[in-house]
User: Fold this.
Amino acid sequence: MFLENLQLYQFKNHTESKFIFTEPVNCFVGNNGAGKTNILDAIHYLSQTKSYFNHIDSQNIQFESDYFMLKGTFNKNGNTSEVQCNLKEGGGKNIQKNKKKYKRFSEHIGQFPIIIISPTDTNLILEGSEVRRKYLDSSIAQYKQSYLQVLIQYKKALKQRNALLKQFNDQGYFDEITIEIYNKQLIEHGTIIHKERISFLKELEPVFNKFYSEISGGDENVGLEYRSQLNTNTFSNLLNESNIKDRASNYTQVGTHKDDIIFTMNNYPIKKIGSQGQQKSFLISLKLAQFDFIKKQIGFKPILLLDDIFDKLDDNRILKLISFVNKGVFGQVFITDTHAERSADILTKAGISFSIYNI
Assistant:
């Protein structure tokens, strides 16, 4: 898959920016604050219908403007598609493919998959379980459209069940028949989610281990441990056992919305024992494994976005990463950097064809 061109209007600090891409590797260079990362985020918007860095859509509109518009042309196996995203302050967002609006944004997810590696990925290690569940779900949704629909239905049932628990508590009665309706929906959709997450991680882990070994050069034993209440019990039993707690808290205490991945090194959480270098190698390997897995599932290479990667990695890790690019592991790659000379030097020495865009 190849992004042929990109246009940004009133998007963050870009009043009007247009790019034409002809090379497999494209570098956006400029000072901090120039808007390099915002270009990567625009590509992410056109793929995932939302920002990678700020999920409040209205905050991505340029200051003193009331809208933004993004447009790009993707070439997938010789077939081109123009994707456009418009957002108007107070008027909502719409996504179009070849000038046809989607009824649901979820229909667009997975059509033009991308993987991004960014300094903010440290949140996967440092933040709570919700961030890691989003990583799981966004990965699976990029190659399995049906999974996203199941996830949407699960979240809808969960929200309605929680609202009922609060309503029953406020009104002083409990309607078991109505609650059971949502229990069945949670069981149906949650069981599928659990199964898909396990399958994804089972196939991802050996690829992840391979990348980690090559990038780090170390002999640490790293792993991805999936923790779920459903690992040792059925969803139905869990709901029955949690009934009293749910009623007391007005919240569903069990289910796949409580799942987590524990990132381990030598059987301990990497959050606690991993050095910064080890954590960086871990996260890059995780994203590269995600790329490789999705590529095999969909039959073509997603786009890879590398944000500020040369500033945040040591020379050894940079060379390892670029060697993968040179071997043709990836397809089209977009890189941001503060130093044009550094980017050009690294890519030239690797024998990679590239373009530099000064921002």
About this structure: The chain has a mean pLDDT of 93. Residues 127-295 form a domain with the Glutathione S-transferase Yfyf (Class Pi); Chain A, domain 2 fold (CATH 1.20.1050.90). The longest strand covers residues 2-11.
